[in-house]
Structure formats: structure tokens, C-alpha cells
Specification:
Structural class: alpha/beta
CATH architecture of the largest domain: 3-Layer(aba) Sandwich
Number of strands: 13
CATH superfamily of the largest domain: Glycogen Phosphorylase B
Shape: globular
Radius of gyration: 23 Å
Strand content: 15-25%
Strand order of the largest sheet: 3-2-1-4-5-6-7
Largest sheet: 7 strands, parallel
């Protein structure tokens, strides 16, 4: 069985966005599936990470085609303009002034390149995919998004290959959360195009995969006319070798919290920062906080720097170095406002063998995972006072060596990427079934 994995970003591009596709390319071959990857040659990325590229098996053939996408820095600058003009418009309205210029500027940028700037890959990626399907006798195509514009490939390919099994994988739920929290634009027109794009792609896909139960449920309920069997959840996972027992926590004079990942609207640290400022000075002085990763907005950077000498902003590190940092922290810090999606770093945290301190949405899947694995404790991310109490609790407990975590190793082991990909492979093999290559590629 041969699968074409379509992913906009792939190693040596770094960042969390490549890890799902990498794990599929890495472990599907262990389950009797040949993998060919189609990706963008010049995909913008926060960094290059050759250690990730070294994990791609020699048997996996990677095909790259150019994209007309904007460079990473330019996209971030436009997104910043959208945010700043929105703030400026609000301020001008409050002062009773005219708002035409900021509003016009925002509208121009917000309605460009929809559903996202990576739409410029499709004119080259679609014909490249069609050629590969025919030439390589592909049995199944798996398209992983975001970027959500790639979901348009489902309908393009469906018209060319009516019986080809096509899997559409949503690593993030789009219409209820991502479009408002982190998307390039959430203008009315952007939302309209996003809704139409997703509806068409879901209709034409053979199978729709989400990575959280909440996302799978949300997408399925949005399309009651589609059979419920069309929607499944295959969660993300970790690749490290987890410790079977959490090490006992010695009495410590200082406590180190480490956050790994991007700081953006979904992981807005404002309530956490407020909680830290509210700690009694004698407790706060014993806290050390590390942030490893990209900080999207200067606003977030300035807010974090307001914590003074206890904060250390280390910037973006290669994946291997970021995972190594897990071993040198006392607690892993998790911040999420998202009630549906689960950041990929949650699973790396599970595999890291350190206790997790989480400020999260109480109705989200992250809470379920933490309680299921007993790998950490949480507070409502909307409640700075609850976060403050949680921080005070762990600092005081650590000082007296009374802090003990006993995670459920058997449950955590289910989230290893090798185990998850084995289940994924079984799904794909059932989809292909008796479909012949003559039918697929004609």
C-alpha cells in the first residue's frame, strides 16, 4: 500500500507544525505502508531544524514544489498590522474620532490571500499531486492541515480521481476556534470563505480525522448530513521514552517552571503574569520562569519582561534542545485558552516525565488528558486568583519536599507516536480495501 502524504511544511522546516507529518512518515512504514511526501520547497518557517530531517526514513521519498507564499517575517508583519489597526480603530472610536483609514487598511489586508497566505501553494501542488498519484500508483492521499487552504486540494483531487480514498486531517479545529484565536484573518469574508472551503472538503473527503475528541465531535456535529462514521479522532503523541515513575521532588529553595511553544492568542499569558505579580514577595522570589519558543507579539514580550529577574526568555530552540530542557526543569508550564484544540506540546510534556502545571480552559480536552493521566494539576486560565493559589501551593510544597506526582504510566504510554500511528495505519488500510489502482488512477 502506498500513501501520498500532503503537508505544506516538512523537515528540515522546524517548529511544531511539522511534527504530525514527520511522525506519520516515520512510523507508517513500520506498518507496511510506503510513504511519499508532497511538501512546499520554500515553506516559511520559524526556524530550520536538521535534527528533524534526520528522522525521516530513507524509504520515504519527499517531493517538493515551490509555493508563492509570503516569507515568514512578512506574514507576521501583516498579521501584526491587522492587530494594531484593530486596536487603533477601537481607540479612535472611543475618542469619538474618524476611523476610515485604519478600518480601510485592515479590510484590505484582511481580505487578501484567503483562506490563508499559503493558498499560493495550490496552483503548483495540485498538479504535482495528480502526477504523483498516477506515476507512483498511489492508493490513498492523506492531506494534513493547517494551513487550511490545503483542504481545497480534496475537492480538486476528487474531481480528477472519483474513487481515490482521500483523508483530510485537521490538526486544529478551524471554524469555532482557530479562525478567531490564531488565523491570518477573521474578517466576515474570511469566515465565509473558510466555512465554504471546509464544507466542500468534508463532503469530498473519504475520511475526516481530528486530533482531539472535542474537535472530532464539533466537526461531526457541523455536518449532520454526513455519516458519523466519516469522522474519527487520532490524537497527537510524543516520541521520547517516558519515565515510568515520576522522580521524587527534593526540597528546593527555588522552583523552575518551563513553558515550551509559541506565545500567541491561544496561549496568552496575561492571567498567568497577573497571578505571578499577585504572589507574596517571599514566595515569588523563589520562582524562576523560562519561556522557550517564538513570542508572536511585542505586547506579550513586554508583559513577560514585567516579571523582572525571575523571567528568562530563551527564544526558539531546535526540537531536540527544547525537549532536553524538559529534563532540567522542576515543572512544565502549560497555558491554553482553547476549549477544543490540544497543543502538540501537551504530549511532549506527557512524555517528558516532569509534573505539569496548567492554566487551561476548564471545558477542554487538556483537562481530560491531565486527569486521565494524572500527570499534572490545573487552574482555570480565566481566573488569575486560582492560578496564583496553584503557584503558591506548588512552591510551598516543593520547599518542604511534600510535592509528589504519580502519573499513570500505562495511560501515558498510549500516546506514544508509534502506538498511535499503528492505529492510524489500520484505519488507512481498511479504507483502501479492495480499491484497485486501475480504478484510482484512470
Amino acid at each position: 500500500m502506498r500513501v501520498l502524504l500532503v503537508t505544506f511544511s516538512f523537515p528540515p522546516a522546524g517548529g511544531v507544525g511539522v511534527l504530525r507529518a514527520l511522525s506519520l512518515a516515520k512510523y507508517l512504514p513500520e506498518n507496511g505502508i510506503e510513504v511519499e511526501v508532497l511538501t512546499a520547497r520554500n515553506a516559511p518557517a520559524v526556524q530550520r531544524d536538521d535534527t528533524l530531517a534526520s528522522q525521516v526514513p530513507f524509504s520515504v521519498i519527499v517531493h517538493r514544489c515551490w509555493t508563492l507564499d509570503l516569507p515568514f517575517g512578512v506574514r507576521k508583519a501583516i498579521k501584526r498590522i491587522l492587530s494594531e489597526t484593530s486596536d487603533a480603530t477601537s481607540a479612535t472610536v472611543a475618542e469619538g474620532g474618524r476611523v476610515s483609514k485604519p478600518r480601510l487598511l485592515k479590510k484590505i489586508f484582511a481580505d487578501m490571500l484567503l483562506p490563508d497566505p499559503q493558498i499560493g501553494w495550490l496552483p503548483l501542488a495540485v498538479p504535482a499531486a495528480a502526477r504523483l498519484i498516477r506515476k507512483k500508483q498511489i492508493d490513498l492521499v492523506l492531506i494534513t492541515v493547517p494551513p487550511f487552504s490545503s483542504s481545497r486540494m480534496v475537492s480538486f483531487l476528487r474531481r480528477k480521481f472519483p474513487v481515490l480514498p482521500i483523508v483530510l486531517e485537521f490538526r486544529d479545529e478551524w471554524l469555532n476556534t482557530t479562525i478567531d484565536l490564531v488565523s491570518y484573518s477573521n474578517s466576515p469574508r474570511a469566515k465565509q470563505i473558510a466555512a465554504r472551503t471546509e464544507k466542500e472538503a468534508v463532503h469530498d473527503a473519504t475520511l475526516v480525522v481530528a486530533v482531539t475528541d472535542a474537535a472530532e465531535r464539533t466537526i461531526r456535529q457541523r455536518y449532520p448530513q454526513e455519516p458519523s462514521s466519516k469522522f474519527v479522532c487520532v490524537p497527537n503523541g510524543y516520541d521520547s521514552q517516558p519515565s515510568l515513575t515520576m522522580p521524587s521532588m527534593p526540597a528546593l529553595d527555588t522552583v523552575t517552571l518551563t513553558f515550551i511553544g509559541t506565545v500567541y492568542r491561544s496561549s496568552d499569558p496575561s492571567s498567568f503574569i497577573e497571578a505571578v505579580h499577585a504572589l507574596p514577595e517571599i514566595i515569588k522570589s523563589r520562582l524562576r520562569i523560562r519561556f522557550i519558543g517564538h513570542i508572536e507579539s511585542p505586547h506579550y514580550r513586554h508583559a513577560l519582561m514585567s516579571l523582572g529577574s525571575i523571567i528568562d526568555l530563551q527564544g526558539v530552540l531546535p526540537q531536540a534542545e527544547a525537549l532536553q530542557a524538559i529534563k532540567t526543569t522542576d515543572y512544565l508550564l502549560l497555558i491554553s485558552h482553547d476549549p477544543i484544540n490540544v497543543a502538540a506540546k501537551v504530549y511532549d510534556y506527557l512524555g517528558g516525565g516532569r509534573p505539569i502545571i496548567a492554566a487551561i480552559h476548564p471545558d477542554g480536552d487538556i483537562r481530560r488528558i491531565l486527569e486521565e493521566t494524572e500527570a499534572g494539576i490545573w487552574a482555570d486560565v480565566r481566573d488569575a486568583n486560582s492560578i496564583r493559589q496553584l503557584l503558591a501551593q506548588i512552591i510551598e510544597a516543593t520547599a518542604t519536599s511534600q510535592c509528589s506526582f504519580r502519573p499513570r504510566a500505562d495511560v501515558i504510554a498510549r500516546y506514544h507516536r508509534r502506538s498511535i500511528t499503528r492505529r492510524y495505519a489500520s484505519l488507512l488500510q481498511k479504507l483502501v480495501g479492495g480499491t484497485s489502482q486501475r480504478e484510482v488512477t484512470r
